Amino acid sequence: MFNMDTVTALGVLGTSSMARLGGCKSWEPGEKLKILLVGYNGKRNTGADVRVAAMVDQFYRILGRGRVKIGILTLDVDNIQVYFKPPTELIRFSSIFFKDLLKACQRYHMAVLSEGSTLKSTFANALTLLFCEAAGAMKKQGNPCIAYGSEAGAMDKLVQQVAGKLCSETYFIARTAPSLKIINAMGLKGHLGTDTAWPFPPGDAARARQEITDKTGWNGKKPLLGVAVVNPFYWPVKPSLTRLARSAVTRNWGHHYEKWYFFSSSKDRNRLYWNYIEGIADAVDRFRKKHDVHVIPVGMEAIDLEPCTDLCNALGLPAKIFTSRIYDGYQLTAVLHSLSMLVTSRYHARVLSMTGGVPSIAISMDERLYNIFQECGHLDDYYLSTNDANLGDNLLSSLETLWENRNTVSREICACVPRYLKIMAEMGRFFHGFVQRSFPGIDLQPLPGDWKDCLPQLHPGLQKILADNPH
Protein backbone atom coordinates (compact mmCIF):
# COMPACT_ATOMS: atom_id res chain seq x y z
CA MET A 1 0.00 0.00 0.00
CA PHE A 2 1.34 3.43 -0.97
CA ASN A 3 1.33 5.74 2.06
CA MET A 4 3.61 8.21 3.80
CA ASP A 5 5.68 5.40 5.31
CA THR A 6 6.33 4.29 1.73
CA VAL A 7 7.32 7.85 0.84
CA THR A 8 9.71 7.88 3.81
CA ALA A 9 11.23 4.56 2.76
CA LEU A 10 11.76 5.81 -0.79
CA GLY A 11 13.23 9.04 0.57
CA VAL A 12 15.70 7.10 2.70
CA LEU A 13 16.76 4.94 -0.24
CA GLY A 14 17.24 7.98 -2.41
CA THR A 15 19.03 10.11 0.17
CA SER A 16 21.46 7.40 1.27
CA SER A 17 22.39 6.77 -2.36
CA MET A 18 23.63 10.38 -2.58
CA ALA A 19 26.02 10.06 0.37
CA ARG A 20 29.14 10.49 -1.76
CA LEU A 21 27.87 13.57 -3.56
CA GLY A 22 29.36 16.82 -2.30
CA GLY A 23 32.15 15.05 -0.48
CA CYS A 24 32.34 12.81 2.57
CA LYS A 25 34.83 12.22 5.35
CA SER A 26 37.49 9.56 4.96
CA TRP A 27 39.78 9.01 7.90
CA GLU A 28 43.44 9.82 7.43
CA PRO A 29 46.21 8.45 9.68
CA GLY A 30 47.13 10.90 12.41
CA GLU A 31 43.73 12.57 12.72
CA LYS A 32 41.10 12.00 15.37
CA LEU A 33 38.46 9.45 14.47
CA LYS A 34 35.03 11.10 14.21
CA ILE A 35 32.23 8.82 15.48
CA LEU A 36 28.59 9.75 14.90
CA LEU A 37 25.95 8.33 17.26
CA VAL A 38 22.53 8.04 15.63
CA GLY A 39 19.64 7.57 18.05
CA TYR A 40 16.38 8.93 19.41
CA ASN A 41 17.77 11.64 21.65
CA GLY A 42 16.47 14.98 22.82
CA LYS A 43 12.80 14.09 23.30
CA ARG A 44 13.01 13.54 27.06
CA ASN A 45 12.96 9.77 26.67
CA THR A 46 15.00 8.78 29.72
CA GLY A 47 15.99 5.35 28.45
CA ALA A 48 17.12 6.60 25.05
CA ASP A 49 19.25 9.32 26.62
CA VAL A 50 20.87 7.43 29.49
CA ARG A 51 21.89 4.44 27.36
CA VAL A 52 23.72 6.81 25.00
CA ALA A 53 25.30 8.71 27.90
CA ALA A 54 26.73 5.45 29.27
CA MET A 55 27.81 4.42 25.78
CA VAL A 56 29.74 7.65 25.21
CA ASP A 57 31.48 7.32 28.59
CA GLN A 58 32.49 3.78 27.66
CA PHE A 59 33.83 4.80 24.25
CA TYR A 60 35.95 7.59 25.74
CA ARG A 61 37.31 5.23 28.38
CA ILE A 62 38.35 2.42 26.02
CA LEU A 63 39.42 4.48 22.98
CA GLY A 64 40.92 7.49 24.74
CA ARG A 65 39.09 10.78 25.22
CA GLY A 66 41.71 12.76 23.35
CA ARG A 67 41.92 10.33 20.42
CA VAL A 68 38.36 10.45 19.12
CA LYS A 69 35.67 13.03 18.50
CA ILE A 70 32.10 11.94 19.20
CA GLY A 71 29.00 13.59 17.78
CA ILE A 72 25.43 12.90 18.87
CA LEU A 73 22.35 13.61 16.81
CA THR A 74 19.60 15.17 18.89
CA LEU A 75 16.13 16.54 18.26
CA ASP A 76 16.70 19.15 21.00
CA VAL A 77 20.12 20.19 22.23
CA ASP A 78 18.91 21.70 25.51
CA ASN A 79 17.21 18.48 26.60
CA ILE A 80 20.41 16.41 26.65
CA GLN A 81 23.12 18.88 27.64
CA VAL A 82 23.06 17.50 31.19
CA TYR A 83 24.51 14.20 29.91
CA PHE A 84 27.22 15.40 27.54
CA LYS A 85 30.08 17.82 27.94
CA PRO A 86 32.71 19.01 25.46
CA PRO A 87 34.42 17.69 23.43
CA THR A 88 31.22 15.77 22.60
CA GLU A 89 29.37 17.56 19.80
CA LEU A 90 25.57 17.83 19.89
CA ILE A 91 24.07 17.99 16.39
CA ARG A 92 20.49 19.13 16.04
CA PHE A 93 18.36 17.40 13.41
CA SER A 94 14.72 17.46 12.39
CA SER A 95 12.30 14.54 12.71
CA ILE A 96 11.90 14.97 8.93
CA PHE A 97 15.47 13.86 8.87
CA PHE A 98 16.61 13.11 5.32
CA LYS A 99 18.90 16.09 4.70
CA ASP A 100 20.12 16.68 8.26
CA LEU A 101 21.13 13.06 8.71
CA LEU A 102 22.90 12.90 5.37
CA LYS A 103 24.95 16.03 6.16
CA ALA A 104 25.96 14.61 9.54
CA CYS A 105 26.98 11.26 8.04
CA GLN A 106 29.15 13.05 5.48
CA ARG A 107 31.10 14.76 8.29
CA TYR A 108 31.95 11.62 10.26
CA HIS A 109 34.17 8.61 9.68
CA MET A 110 31.85 5.99 11.18
CA ALA A 111 28.36 5.68 12.64
CA VAL A 112 27.00 3.92 15.71
CA LEU A 113 23.28 3.15 15.73
CA SER A 114 22.70 3.92 19.40
CA GLU A 115 18.95 3.46 19.93
CA GLY A 116 17.73 0.26 21.55
CA SER A 117 14.65 -0.22 19.35
CA THR A 118 16.60 -0.21 16.09
CA LEU A 119 14.83 -2.55 13.68
CA LYS A 120 11.12 -2.78 14.50
CA SER A 121 7.83 -1.24 13.41
CA THR A 122 6.29 -1.07 16.90
CA PHE A 123 6.89 2.62 17.52
CA ALA A 124 7.39 4.20 14.10
CA ASN A 125 8.62 2.99 10.76
CA ALA A 126 10.25 6.39 10.39
CA LEU A 127 12.47 5.62 13.39
CA THR A 128 13.76 2.39 11.87
CA LEU A 129 14.18 4.12 8.52
CA LEU A 130 16.27 6.82 10.21
CA PHE A 131 18.76 4.14 11.23
CA CYS A 132 18.57 2.56 7.79
CA GLU A 133 19.51 5.86 6.15
CA ALA A 134 22.53 6.26 8.43
CA ALA A 135 23.61 2.68 7.70
CA GLY A 136 23.04 3.16 3.97
CA ALA A 137 24.94 6.44 3.87
CA MET A 138 27.94 4.92 5.61
CA LYS A 139 27.79 1.92 3.29
CA LYS A 140 27.77 4.21 0.26
CA GLN A 141 30.72 6.18 1.64
CA GLY A 142 32.68 3.02 2.41
CA ASN A 143 32.70 3.87 6.12
CA PRO A 144 31.82 1.43 8.90
CA CYS A 145 28.57 1.31 10.84
CA ILE A 146 27.79 -0.68 13.98
CA ALA A 147 24.55 -1.04 15.94
CA TYR A 148 25.39 -1.13 19.64
CA GLY A 149 23.01 -2.95 22.00
CA SER A 150 20.14 -3.05 19.51
CA GLU A 151 16.75 -4.72 19.47
CA ALA A 152 15.02 -6.18 16.41
CA GLY A 153 11.36 -7.10 16.24
CA ALA A 154 8.48 -7.38 13.83
CA MET A 155 8.78 -5.05 10.85
CA ASP A 156 6.45 -4.10 8.03
CA LYS A 157 7.50 -5.86 4.85
CA LEU A 158 8.79 -2.78 3.02
CA VAL A 159 10.75 -1.58 6.04
CA GLN A 160 12.35 -5.00 6.44
CA GLN A 161 13.33 -4.96 2.77
CA VAL A 162 14.90 -1.50 3.11
CA ALA A 163 16.72 -2.58 6.27
CA GLY A 164 18.06 -5.68 4.56
CA LYS A 165 19.40 -3.58 1.69
CA LEU A 166 20.87 -0.60 3.54
CA CYS A 167 22.13 -2.41 6.65
CA SER A 168 23.92 -5.20 4.77
CA GLU A 169 27.34 -3.83 5.83
CA THR A 170 26.28 -2.86 9.36
CA TYR A 171 27.42 -5.03 12.25
CA PHE A 172 24.79 -5.59 14.94
CA ILE A 173 25.48 -6.21 18.61
CA ALA A 174 22.00 -7.36 19.59
CA ARG A 175 20.45 -6.62 22.96
CA THR A 176 18.74 -10.02 23.23
CA ALA A 177 18.92 -13.51 21.72
CA PRO A 178 15.49 -13.19 20.00
CA SER A 179 16.71 -9.96 18.39
CA LEU A 180 19.87 -11.64 17.14
CA LYS A 181 17.76 -14.43 15.64
CA ILE A 182 15.77 -11.87 13.61
CA ILE A 183 18.95 -10.07 12.56
CA ASN A 184 20.57 -13.30 11.38
CA ALA A 185 17.40 -14.38 9.56
CA MET A 186 17.66 -11.13 7.56
CA GLY A 187 21.17 -12.13 6.48
CA LEU A 188 22.80 -9.45 8.63
CA LYS A 189 25.95 -9.89 10.69
CA GLY A 190 26.14 -9.66 14.46
CA HIS A 191 26.47 -11.24 17.86
CA LEU A 192 24.74 -11.14 21.24
CA GLY A 193 25.33 -8.26 23.63
CA THR A 194 23.15 -6.35 26.08
CA ASP A 195 21.65 -2.93 26.74
CA THR A 196 24.09 -0.11 27.45
CA ALA A 197 22.30 1.67 30.32
CA TRP A 198 23.55 -0.72 33.02
CA PRO A 199 26.43 1.46 34.31
CA PHE A 200 24.36 4.68 34.34
CA PRO A 201 24.66 6.27 37.81
CA PRO A 202 21.83 7.53 40.00
CA GLY A 203 21.77 11.05 41.40
CA ASP A 204 21.99 11.80 45.11
CA ALA A 205 19.86 9.32 47.09
CA ALA A 206 19.13 11.68 50.00
CA ARG A 207 17.96 14.40 47.63
CA ALA A 208 15.71 11.94 45.81
CA ARG A 209 14.07 10.83 49.06
CA GLN A 210 13.64 14.42 50.15
CA GLU A 211 12.07 15.27 46.79
CA ILE A 212 9.62 12.39 47.16
CA THR A 213 8.71 13.70 50.62
CA ASP A 214 8.33 17.31 49.51
CA LYS A 215 6.46 16.52 46.31
CA THR A 216 4.10 13.76 47.43
CA GLY A 217 3.86 14.01 51.21
CA TRP A 218 5.64 10.70 51.84
CA ASN A 219 6.40 10.21 55.54
CA GLY A 220 9.78 8.62 54.86
CA LYS A 221 8.72 5.31 56.39
CA LYS A 222 6.00 3.74 54.26
CA PRO A 223 7.15 1.36 51.51
CA LEU A 224 7.27 3.10 48.13
CA LEU A 225 5.45 1.59 45.15
CA GLY A 226 6.44 3.21 41.86
CA VAL A 227 4.19 2.91 38.81
CA ALA A 228 5.61 3.74 35.37
CA VAL A 229 2.72 3.83 32.90
CA VAL A 230 2.54 4.65 29.19
CA ASN A 231 -0.12 4.80 26.51
CA PRO A 232 0.61 1.43 24.89
CA PHE A 233 -2.03 1.96 22.21
CA TYR A 234 -0.67 5.24 20.83
CA TRP A 235 1.75 3.37 18.58
CA PRO A 236 2.89 3.31 15.89
CA VAL A 237 3.40 6.96 15.07
CA LYS A 238 2.87 7.52 11.36
CA PRO A 239 3.33 10.46 9.00
CA SER A 240 0.09 11.69 7.43
CA LEU A 241 -0.41 14.72 5.22
CA THR A 242 -4.17 14.07 5.30
CA ARG A 243 -4.34 14.29 9.10
CA LEU A 244 -2.02 17.29 9.05
CA ALA A 245 -4.28 19.15 6.62
CA ARG A 246 -7.42 18.20 8.57
CA SER A 247 -5.89 19.38 11.84
CA ALA A 248 -4.79 22.65 10.27
CA VAL A 249 -8.32 23.32 8.96
CA THR A 250 -10.24 22.20 12.06
CA ARG A 251 -7.65 23.40 14.62
CA ASN A 252 -8.06 20.03 16.29
CA TRP A 253 -4.56 18.77 17.02
CA GLY A 254 -5.53 15.75 19.07
CA HIS A 255 -3.13 12.81 18.71
CA HIS A 256 -0.56 15.03 16.95
CA TYR A 257 3.05 14.13 17.74
CA GLU A 258 4.95 16.72 15.75
CA LYS A 259 5.35 17.97 12.20
CA TRP A 260 3.53 15.46 9.96
CA TYR A 261 3.59 12.65 12.54
CA PHE A 262 0.49 11.45 14.40
CA PHE A 263 -0.16 8.85 17.07
CA SER A 264 -2.47 5.98 16.22
CA SER A 265 -6.03 6.46 17.47
CA SER A 266 -9.41 4.73 17.33
CA LYS A 267 -12.32 3.90 19.61
CA ASP A 268 -10.94 0.40 20.15
CA ARG A 269 -7.52 1.75 21.08
CA ASN A 270 -9.13 4.20 23.50
CA ARG A 271 -11.12 1.39 25.11
CA LEU A 272 -7.99 -0.73 25.49
CA TYR A 273 -6.13 2.22 26.98
CA TRP A 274 -8.73 2.79 29.68
CA ASN A 275 -8.86 -0.91 30.46
CA TYR A 276 -5.08 -0.70 31.01
CA ILE A 277 -5.18 2.46 33.18
CA GLU A 278 -8.22 1.41 35.20
CA GLY A 279 -6.92 -2.14 35.65
CA ILE A 280 -3.62 -0.85 37.05
CA ALA A 281 -5.43 1.68 39.25
CA ASP A 282 -7.78 -0.98 40.60
CA ALA A 283 -4.96 -3.35 41.54
CA VAL A 284 -2.73 -0.62 42.98
CA ASP A 285 -5.61 0.85 45.00
CA ARG A 286 -6.50 -2.50 46.57
CA PHE A 287 -2.86 -3.28 47.22
CA ARG A 288 -2.00 0.07 48.83
CA LYS A 289 -5.01 -0.10 51.15
CA LYS A 290 -4.06 -3.59 52.31
CA HIS A 291 -0.34 -2.98 52.77
CA ASP A 292 -0.27 0.79 53.46
CA VAL A 293 2.23 1.59 50.73
CA HIS A 294 2.89 5.04 49.29
CA VAL A 295 2.32 5.25 45.52
CA ILE A 296 4.35 7.48 43.20
CA PRO A 297 3.86 7.67 39.41
CA VAL A 298 6.98 7.80 37.22
CA GLY A 299 6.92 9.15 33.65
CA MET A 300 10.05 7.93 31.89
CA GLU A 301 9.27 9.85 28.68
CA ALA A 302 7.73 13.29 28.29
CA ILE A 303 4.63 11.85 26.62
CA ASP A 304 4.02 9.63 29.67
CA LEU A 305 2.77 12.64 31.63
CA GLU A 306 -0.79 12.20 30.33
CA PRO A 307 -1.15 8.49 31.26
CA CYS A 308 0.49 9.21 34.64
CA THR A 309 -2.08 11.96 35.19
CA ASP A 310 -4.91 9.62 34.18
CA LEU A 311 -3.59 7.04 36.65
CA CYS A 312 -3.50 9.63 39.45
CA ASN A 313 -7.08 10.65 38.67
CA ALA A 314 -8.20 7.01 38.71
CA LEU A 315 -6.50 6.54 42.08
CA GLY A 316 -7.86 9.78 43.50
CA LEU A 317 -4.32 11.10 44.00
CA PRO A 318 -2.97 14.58 43.30
CA ALA A 319 -1.01 14.60 40.04
CA LYS A 320 2.40 14.69 41.72
CA ILE A 321 4.37 12.92 39.02
CA PHE A 322 8.07 12.27 38.61
CA THR A 323 8.15 13.09 34.92
CA SER A 324 11.12 13.32 32.59
CA ARG A 325 9.76 16.68 31.50
CA ILE A 326 11.21 17.97 34.77
CA TYR A 327 13.64 15.34 36.05
CA ASP A 328 16.73 14.15 34.20
CA GLY A 329 17.97 10.57 34.07
CA TYR A 330 20.21 10.91 37.12
CA GLN A 331 17.31 12.19 39.22
CA LEU A 332 14.83 9.60 37.94
CA THR A 333 17.31 6.77 38.52
CA ALA A 334 17.73 7.94 42.11
CA VAL A 335 13.93 7.98 42.49
CA LEU A 336 13.73 4.44 41.08
CA HIS A 337 16.42 3.26 43.50
CA SER A 338 14.34 4.66 46.38
CA LEU A 339 11.43 2.33 45.63
CA SER A 340 10.41 -0.78 47.51
CA MET A 341 8.65 -2.18 44.41
CA LEU A 342 7.95 -1.08 40.85
CA VAL A 343 5.20 -1.71 38.32
CA THR A 344 6.45 -0.71 34.89
CA SER A 345 5.53 -0.60 31.23
CA ARG A 346 8.87 1.07 30.49
CA TYR A 347 11.85 -1.15 29.69
CA HIS A 348 14.46 1.22 31.05
CA ALA A 349 12.58 1.73 34.30
CA ARG A 350 13.22 -1.99 34.80
CA VAL A 351 16.90 -1.70 33.83
CA LEU A 352 17.65 1.37 35.93
CA SER A 353 15.74 0.04 38.94
CA MET A 354 17.58 -3.31 38.74
CA THR A 355 20.90 -1.60 39.51
CA GLY A 356 19.26 -0.55 42.78
CA GLY A 357 17.98 -4.07 43.46
CA VAL A 358 14.34 -2.98 43.15
CA PRO A 359 11.89 -5.86 42.47
CA SER A 360 9.43 -5.13 39.70
CA ILE A 361 6.45 -6.29 37.68
CA ALA A 362 6.18 -5.74 33.93
CA ILE A 363 3.01 -4.76 32.07
CA SER A 364 4.40 -5.01 28.58
CA MET A 365 3.41 -3.88 25.10
CA ASP A 366 6.25 -5.54 23.18
CA GLU A 367 9.13 -7.98 23.43
CA ARG A 368 11.62 -5.86 25.36
CA LEU A 369 10.29 -6.42 28.87
CA TYR A 370 9.38 -9.99 27.98
CA ASN A 371 12.99 -10.70 27.05
CA ILE A 372 14.57 -9.22 30.17
CA PHE A 373 12.07 -10.86 32.53
CA GLN A 374 12.73 -14.17 30.79
CA GLU A 375 16.49 -13.69 31.16
CA CYS A 376 16.07 -13.05 34.89
CA GLY A 377 13.69 -15.98 35.46
CA HIS A 378 10.81 -13.70 36.47
CA LEU A 379 8.51 -14.22 33.50
CA ASP A 380 5.96 -16.59 35.01
CA ASP A 381 5.14 -14.63 38.16
CA TYR A 382 5.82 -11.02 37.31
CA TYR A 383 5.04 -10.44 33.63
CA LEU A 384 1.69 -9.22 32.28
CA SER A 385 0.45 -7.83 28.97
CA THR A 386 -0.96 -4.35 28.43
CA ASN A 387 -4.02 -5.78 26.66
CA ASP A 388 -4.85 -8.25 29.44
CA ALA A 389 -8.66 -8.18 29.75
CA ASN A 390 -8.38 -9.11 33.44
CA LEU A 391 -5.44 -6.85 34.21
CA GLY A 392 -6.65 -5.59 37.58
CA ASP A 393 -7.01 -9.01 39.20
CA ASN A 394 -3.88 -10.44 37.57
CA LEU A 395 -1.77 -7.46 38.58
CA LEU A 396 -3.03 -7.64 42.16
CA SER A 397 -2.06 -11.32 42.27
CA SER A 398 1.44 -10.47 41.00
CA LEU A 399 1.77 -7.62 43.48
CA GLU A 400 0.87 -9.92 46.36
CA THR A 401 3.35 -12.54 45.17
CA LEU A 402 6.09 -9.96 44.78
CA TRP A 403 5.33 -8.45 48.20
CA GLU A 404 5.80 -11.83 49.84
CA ASN A 405 9.00 -12.54 47.90
CA ARG A 406 10.40 -9.05 47.44
CA ASN A 407 13.64 -9.66 49.33
CA THR A 408 14.33 -12.86 47.41
CA VAL A 409 13.51 -11.23 44.08
CA SER A 410 15.75 -8.28 44.94
CA ARG A 411 18.66 -10.66 45.56
CA GLU A 412 17.91 -12.47 42.28
CA ILE A 413 17.91 -9.17 40.41
CA CYS A 414 21.23 -8.12 41.93
CA ALA A 415 22.68 -11.51 41.00
CA CYS A 416 21.75 -10.86 37.34
CA VAL A 417 23.39 -7.44 37.06
CA PRO A 418 27.07 -8.55 37.01
CA ARG A 419 26.44 -10.72 33.95
CA TYR A 420 25.01 -7.75 32.05
CA LEU A 421 27.95 -5.57 33.07
CA LYS A 422 30.44 -8.20 31.92
CA ILE A 423 28.67 -8.50 28.57
CA MET A 424 28.80 -4.74 28.13
CA ALA A 425 32.49 -4.79 28.96
CA GLU A 426 33.00 -7.42 26.25
CA MET A 427 31.06 -5.18 23.87
CA GLY A 428 33.57 -2.45 24.63
CA ARG A 429 36.48 -4.78 23.90
CA PHE A 430 34.85 -5.81 20.63
CA PHE A 431 34.22 -2.16 19.69
CA HIS A 432 37.87 -1.32 20.31
CA GLY A 433 38.89 -4.15 17.95
CA PHE A 434 36.21 -3.19 15.43
CA VAL A 435 37.64 0.33 15.23
CA GLN A 436 41.19 -0.96 14.88
CA ARG A 437 40.22 -3.35 12.09
CA SER A 438 38.18 -0.68 10.29
CA PHE A 439 40.93 1.94 10.47
CA PRO A 440 44.33 0.21 10.20
CA GLY A 441 47.09 2.20 11.84
CA ILE A 442 44.81 4.20 14.14
CA ASP A 443 46.36 5.18 17.48
CA LEU A 444 43.94 4.13 20.23
CA GLN A 445 44.37 3.83 23.96
CA PRO A 446 45.41 0.25 24.79
CA LEU A 447 42.70 -1.96 26.24
CA PRO A 448 42.87 -2.34 30.04
CA GLY A 449 43.42 -5.76 31.57
CA ASP A 450 40.55 -5.59 34.07
CA TRP A 451 37.13 -6.01 32.46
CA LYS A 452 35.61 -3.42 34.80
CA ASP A 453 37.91 -0.80 33.27
CA CYS A 454 36.18 -1.40 29.93
CA LEU A 455 33.06 0.20 31.41
CA PRO A 456 32.31 3.73 32.57
CA GLN A 457 33.37 4.34 36.17
CA LEU A 458 31.00 2.23 38.26
CA HIS A 459 28.99 3.98 40.96
CA PRO A 460 29.10 2.65 44.57
CA GLY A 461 25.82 0.77 44.22
CA LEU A 462 27.17 -1.30 41.34
CA GLN A 463 30.47 -1.83 43.12
CA LYS A 464 28.55 -3.30 46.06
CA ILE A 465 26.48 -5.53 43.77
CA LEU A 466 29.69 -6.88 42.24
CA ALA A 467 31.24 -7.42 45.64
CA ASP A 468 28.14 -9.27 46.85
CA ASN A 469 27.91 -11.37 43.67
CA PRO A 470 31.53 -12.18 42.80
CA HIS A 471 30.74 -14.97 40.34
How much of the residues is beta strand, in percent?
A: 15-25%
Number of helices, where a helix is a run of at least 4 consecutive DSSP H or I residues: 16
Question: What is the correct CATH architecture of the largest domain?
Answer: 3-Layer(aba) Sandwich
Helix content, binned percent: 40-55%
Oligomer: single chain
Alpha-carbon distance between the two ends: 53 Å
Number of domains: 2
SSE class: alpha/beta
Alpha carbon gyration radius:
22 Å
Give the strand tally.
Answer: 17
| Structural shape | globular
Largest sheet, strands/sense/barrel:
8 strands, parallel
In the CATH hierarchy, the third-tier topology of the largest domain is known as Rossmann fold
Give the integer mean of the pLDDT values: 96
Jot down its keywords.
Rossmann fold; 6-stranded parallel beta sheet; 2 domains; 8-stranded parallel beta sheet; single chain; 16 helices; alpha/beta; 471 residues
